[in-house]
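Entry for the shared binder. Reason: the reviewer on the internal report wants the predicted structure included alongside the sequence.
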Amino acid sequence: MRALLAFLVIALAWANAASAQMPGAPGNVKLNEICETRGRPGCPVHLSIEGAITAETARSFASLLELEQKRVGAWLRPVVSIQSTGGDLQAAMAIGREIRKRTGTIQSAGPCHSACVFAAMGGVERKLAGIGLHRPYFAYSDTNVFAEADARYKRMLRLIVDYLFEMNISDDVLRVMVAVPPGEMRVLSAPDARRIGLNGVDPAYDEFRTGQEAAQYGISSFELRRRQAALEQQCGREDDMRSLADMHKRETCRTSMRERLLWGLDEETYARLNRSTQDRCRMLAPDSPERRQCVRRVADALRGDTRE
């Protein structure tokens, strides 16, 4: 179809990167780090996208993930690094949907402009720098009738609105976008990107992850959030840190207090929990579901919820 929806494509020189890719990685998509554990659901696989986003980019991205998933024999979580100044809007959306379907994460040191932002929206966790927005426009305009152009532009906006809803992204993104003429670019600051939801955690994924974590401690999502807020109050919020020394102090505080606060135990009881789990759960793999269940049984006993 000649009337292709697209954003401004500023070609990047990525030929050298393409020649250095791992075998079997086509185009400007690279498979940088494979899953090392066959049969492990959610195993991370690291990919990168550099340069203009095209339909071939979207096909290559999906194909690499499918091939790797077949090799591993379980679903994978893509960890995607992206650098692009734009490309094809629908191809970018296809990449975003593929990432979201697999609850993947995405990061960029910049630039991530125009269509790149739509691909990045698919990450359930996003950490992006150099986000650049401008109003979407057509690569080709072949009508002499304003009403036709108007209807076509509204269809494009509807496509974007529906995609933002699908990705749980605020309409604020579209408002910022349409205010910038196509020949210009607004590069967002980190606070602005976070405020309009382009950086951070997808709200639905946050609810899912919070529910899973709460279940590990045997409490409700509401109670987990209350205890997390208490931890933030004790150790400080990341956004309030003004230096590396402050960040280090915060992390030290969180490391020493997090588990005790989330278990809802005083210092003496938490020390007993550590001693008991070292004895009763020592044969179980760290971070495995079996070990977490074992720790919870011990914690419940110490809290008086059960008896062992």
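Summary line for the report: The mean pLDDT is 86.
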